[in-house]
Design brief:
heterodimer, A: about 475 residues, mainly alpha, B: about 625 residues, two-stranded antiparallel sheet, 2 strands, globular
């Protein structure tokens, strides 16, 4: 029951928000709602018993004749991603408070709608439901970026939409094909879809269709060109939603679909996918070094980081999979933190151009400290969240292939290069006209950043809580591949 | 109690870090050094306790990363080796903290400085106390971070920030090696805990390819951290940081982490002769290379930096001969006299209002007698003049090299003569003859306050008497330190083939030759720089080609810039502008355009004319039939 409440609550809140008028009211209402949602997710987390599979199951018939049912529930993998989503949402909402957007009711309503879709994707245990929520997430994302984005938003957002929508259509095709191969009466239930026996050729086609859909979403090189543009043009909340949570849908999909269903194809063609992922790490890192816009730099760094996560999934070892799980959470937290800091700087100076900034640490030491901590998380310094993830990922990839691990490991050098360069050019040095009068963080801004910083160290110091939750289900998924 | 040792510094960091704007300097002056003193006292107690215990077991705090067979507890291992390091880190650390109270007194970033320094001591303690490689790695990267923060402490200056970033990135290159080494350890031994790994390693054959690979990868980490060829260029630049930072991080503790790590993993190295050879050559090459650069430098801190690189090279030479306790001995005495040299240099810089060029110093002997005498002691110690500490520790390594091969001994000897040369050159130019700076500076020259001088005196005492902890048998000593450390290296000693130890007569001869050479250097430099007043020519003076090569540090920075930095920047630009924007993005956009175009074109097929549809249908059927016949 809790699962379905977690999906429906944001929907209800979203609808109510539309009827509110005053901006202040809307803000408090939405924030309270998102916090309640987070509270419910925590309650589910507490109730959740590790080592039993799909729990908190909700099931109702819908289009029973077609074998479609409203089946929602959570296993450890879903649990972690639902926690991530519900944790980040209040942060993203608070981060938007310093902007006064036009039509705030629509803006916040869309954010909540997005939350519903995301929770739906992560908890759906029926193929068609999964697809419906998957596409549903695209709609609020599209509007948030297209309505409240930067100057070039329409063209860029359309590109983003077409890119990901095309990818998803391949996934739909694959799902329908799988459905048609389930025994009569057909069913979209995960358990049935998992059991479909496919010939190697069929596996390959299904693998390619899934890969395309997920590779665009994540994004994996060379399907990434929508991403830097979209992040740069989207409003802060949009970039955070996309990079922080939405791209995890792609990795989640790989774990949920590709490994159980096309494991043979994955073992045969996984090396090819791995080469793309690892190439992306080096490629995007190199490009990030010369970026001039802070958001674009972070966007390319994100391609590198998620490339490593994807490589970890393709490596199919327990360490790399667990690393992927923990790094999905960490990456979400860190990139939201980075976009938040960039947004705070942009609000104050009206620019994200690295060359125009400098010396901010002199005027805003608190901002400098928060920026540094989040940066350390994202360059994977030990005792921060990023290290646990990258350590496990690289270890797991090493067990699979030493060469890929060594190449992927270059990310720890490159990330230091571009991140410290950005920090140096924006925060250090002397101030200029733009940064001379910059104000330090307000209490609201601190309150937005502190939860992120707490999580950075919590996961860095005590990753056990999160690793243990996912372990049995990750093992089960890996069993498919054996 | 063991847990409290790293806890105090991190507590100090948190207090000073969170309250960096509100806590008055007076309190900071107590909290900063005070926390380290507490750790030091506890380290002494631990040291006294473990002197007599035989077994050392890890102390598990909590499970850190645990997935099936991968079990990494947050655990400390207290044995003689870590205990010795803890004493150095907290002891020398405390002295330097006290000194910093005076040195940084006027700095607006006083609180931030002590916060970072405490964080550094915490990280360094994790590094030496960790009971497995990942915990060591936490400290390993942690000290790298603190080094970054403190080199760029005066962050208004982008030159300093560049130096800080360079240090961090070069260290990270090494860290990737360390990381890969850890992975290979795990896949080989299925554990990362020191005791498990070493126990299993004992049963392996010498020259096992996995062991060689592991030790080489870990050594890459050590090369980065301990500034050996080819990753040494960050250390001279790191002198941009405040002088106490150079003393603590870039001389006494952090840069010796590589030596500690190899000594910790001794059994792995002993079983990898190939790695030992590479390590020995690297160390020897670095020792000579850096010493030769030091001779032509004029910045007082840079000379000391190259000297540190060179001395670290000696430690690696010692390690590569299997002289683990000898290397640790030199690490210890080096911590004393090199910290002293930096602090005394800091005292000089402080008195001259920031001047670091020794050509603009001179004659400070009388104005700053305490600084002069302590500097003199440290110089004599590093040059290896008996009975100061450096004499004993360097002699132990030199004797080991002679056991191995007289050729290597001779090369190492040349290095130590160079050491004596550049050290006494610096001493004479700084403290003797007349002052060569401005009148205003001359007016301001003063001896440093007690809070800075007392640390100098303490370190001077350690530099004088520090050698007595390990007096070799040739002097009728009992090699106390070696005995203390023996349990840690017992496994390796059992495996190593032992060369016949040198006879006392040979040892006396070697010492005699070395000492004569060093004294010759002392007089030669006196003649050259005091009597004949050489070495004062400005940078743009005409020099012979080899001298120009060396005084430009063999153009290594320029070389790296040309073969690494520039190509990467070019590649970055090229990938972005050509591959990303012109090829991939254009192709993807093209796909989109093509779909739209196809749609627009095919639209015209829908004419609404039934006859046309029929025609197409029949054409289709005919084609299908045709292909069926063909197949």
């Amino acid at each position: 029951m809790l699962t379905i409440i977690l999906i429906l609550l944001p929907l209800a809140l979203s609808l109510i928000t539309l009827s509110l008028k005053k901006e202040k009211e809307i803000r408090y209402f939405v924030l309270t709602g998102a916090l309640i949602e987070f509270g419910l997710a925590v309650a589910a987390f507490v109730q959740y018993k590790t080592s039993c599979h799909c729990q908190l199951l909700f099931r109702a018939d819908w289009l029973a004749s077609m074998g479609v049912s409203l089946k929602f529930g959570m296993d450890g993998i879903s649990m972690l991603l639902v926690m991530l989503t519900t944790f980040l949402l209040p942060v993203i909402i608070m981060a938007s408070f310093s902007h006064s957007y036009e039509r705030p009711s629509a803006f916040y309503s869309l954010i909540l709608l997005m939350e519903m879709a995301l929770v739906g994707v992560f908890t759906a245990f029926d193929g068609l439901m999964f697809y419906i929520f998957w596409e549903m997430a695209l709609i609020p994302a599209y509007f948030i970026c297209a309505v409240w984005g930067g100057n070039d938003r329409i063209r860029i957002t359309l590109k983003f939409f077409i890119y990901t929508f095309t990818g998803s259509l391949f996934m739909l095709g694959a799902l329908i094909y799988l459905y048609s191969r389930t025994p009569m009466p057909h069913s979209f239930d995960f358990q049935w879809l998992y059991l479909v026996a496919l010939t190697p050729t069929e596996q390959l086609w299904i693998f390619l269709a899934f890969f395309l859909a997920f590779a665009v979403k994540i994004p994996i090189f060379p399907f990434h060109t929508w991403q830097p543009d979209t992040y740069a043009e989207a409003p802060a909340a949009g970039s955070m939603l996309l990079a922080g949570i939405m791209l995890k849908m792609g990795i989640y999909g790989m774990i949920r679909w590709m490994i159980p269903i096309c494991h043979q194809a994955l073992q045969q063609w996984g090396t090819f996918a791995m080469i793309l992922a690892v190439t992306g790490i080096v490629y995007a890192s190199l490009i990030a070094i010369r970026q001039k816009d802070m958001k674009r730099l972070v966007a390319y760094s994100s391609i590198a980081h998620v490339g490593l996560i994807a490589a970890g999934v393709f490596a199919l070892t327990i360490h790399s999979m667990q690393g992927a799980m923990i790094q999905m959470i960490s990456h979400g937290i860190n990139i939201v933190g980075l976009f938040l800091v960039i947004d705070l700087i942009e609000q104050r100076t009206k620019t994200r151009n690295i060359a125009d900034l400098g010396g901010i640490a002199l005027k805003a030491p608190r901002l400098a400290v928060f920026f540094m901590v989040i940066l350390l998380g994202s360059i994977a310094l030990p005792l921060t969240n990023g290290f646990v993830g990258e350590f496990l990922l690289l270890l797991g990839i090493f067990e699979h292939s030493v060469v890929f691990s060594a190449i992927g490991g270059l990310t720890i050098i490159f990330s230091a290069v571009y991140m410290l360069w950005m920090y140096q050019r924006t925060m250090l040095g002397t101030t200029n006209q733009l940064t001379g009068q910059i104000a330090d963080l307000t209490w609201t801004e601190m309150a937005t950043l502190i939860p992120l910083v707490i999580m950075i160290f919590w996961i860095g110091l005590f990753p056990g809580l999160f690793l243990d939750v996912a372990l049995p289900d990750v093992l089960q998924i890996l069993n498919f591949a054996k | 109690m063991v847990v409290l040792i790293p806890l105090f510094p991190i507590l100090g960091f948190l207090i000073l870090g969170l309250g960096f704007r509100t806590i008055p300097k007076k309190w900071t002056a107590f909290i900063g050094p005070g926390m380290i003193l507490l750790s030091f006292v506890l380290s002494v107690i631990i040291f006294l306790n473990i002197r007599h215990s035989v077994v050392s077991l890890p102390i598990n705090l909590f499970p850190w990363i645990h997935i099936g067979p991968l079990n990494i507890p947050f655990a400390f291992l207290i044995d003689p080796l870590s205990s010795l390091m803890m004493l150095i880190v907290t002891g020398v650390g405390f002295i330097i903290h006290v000194y910093s109270v005076g040195y940084m007194k006027e700095d607006p970033g006083f609180n931030r400085f002590f916060a970072f320094m405490n964080l550094f001591v915490f990280s360094m303690l994790l590094l030496v106390m960790g009971a497995n490689y990942p915990i060591m790695f936490i400290g390993w990267e942690g000290v790298g971070l603190c080094s970054y923060l403190l080199i760029g402490f005066w962050f208004k200056n982008q030159e300093f920030n560049n130096a800080a970033k360079k240090a961090f990135i070069m260290n990270r290159i090494g860290d990737l090696g360390f990381l890969m080494g850890m992975f290979l350890i795990f896949t080989t031994f299925h554990s990362l805990n020191f005791l498990d790994v070493f126990e299993q390693a004992k049963g392996m054959t010498s020259g096992d390819s996995n062991l060689v690979a592991i030790t080489l990868l870990l050594f890459i980490g050590a090369v980065g951290k301990s500034a050996q060829i080819p990753l040494f260029t960050w250390l001279p630049d790191a002198m941009a940081g405040p002088t106490p930072v150079s003393a603590l991080i870039h001389a006494a503790t952090m840069v010796t982490a590589g030596v500690y790590m190899v000594a910790r993993s001794n059994i792995l190295y002993v079983l990898s002769p190939a790695t030992m050879a590479i390590m020995g050559l690297t160390g020897l090459a670095t020792a000579l290379f850096a010493a030769s650069i030091a001779i032509f430098q004029n910045d007082i801190k840079k000379i000391l930096a190259y000297s540190t690189i060179s001395q670290l090279g000696y430690m690696f030479v010692g390690l590569s001969m299997g002289a683990f306790s000898g290397a640790m001995f030199h690490l210890t005495t080096h911590a004393f006299f090199k910290a002293l040299l930096f602090l005394a240099a800091g005292s000089v810089i402080h008195a001259l209002g920031g001047e670091q060029d020794i050509r603009k110093m001179g004659g400070l002997k009388n104005a700053m007698p305490k600084t002069f005498w302590t500097f003199l002691i440290a110089t004599a110690a590093i040059a290896g003049i008996p009975p100061l500490s450096g004499f004993f520790s360097k002699d132990e390594i030199l004797a080991k090299t002679f056991e191995f091969s007289s050729g290597i001994w001779f090369i190492a000897l040349i290095g130590s003569l160079m050491t004596a040369f550049y050290m006494f050159r610096m001493l004479y130019l700084t403290f003797f003859k007349d002052f060569r700076g401005t009148e205003e500076q001359k007016h301001h020259i003063h001896e440093s306050p007690a809070v800075m001088v007392i640390p100098l005196i303490l370190l001077a005492l350690l530099s004088v008497f520090g050698g007595f902890i390990n007096i070799p048998s040739v002097f009728g000593g009992n090699t106390g330190l070696s005995n203390f450390l023996a349990p840690v290296f017992a496994g390796s000693n059992a495996v190593m083939e032992h060369e016949t130890p040198l006879s006392h007569g040979t040892e006396w001869l070697l010492m005699g030759v070395t000492l004569a050479g060093v004294l010759a250097m002392v007089f030669w430099t006196y003649h050259r720089y005091i009597t004949r007043q050489h070495g004062l020519s400005p940078d743009d003076a005409r020099r012979s080609l080899p001298v120009r090569l060396i005084s430009h540090k063999y153009y290594v920075d320029e070389l790296y810039r040309a073969i690494v930095v520039k190509p990467i920047l070019w590649l970055s630009q090229m990938l972005h502008e050509i591959v990303e924007l012109r090829i991939i993005d254009r192709f993807m956009n093209g796909l989109g355009t093509m779909v739209v175009w196809t749609g627009n074109t095919i639209r015209y097929v829908q004419t609404g004319n039934v006859g046309f549809y029929m025609f197409i249908m029949i054409l289709g059927i005919m084609l299908i039939l045709f292909f069926n016949i063909l197949i």
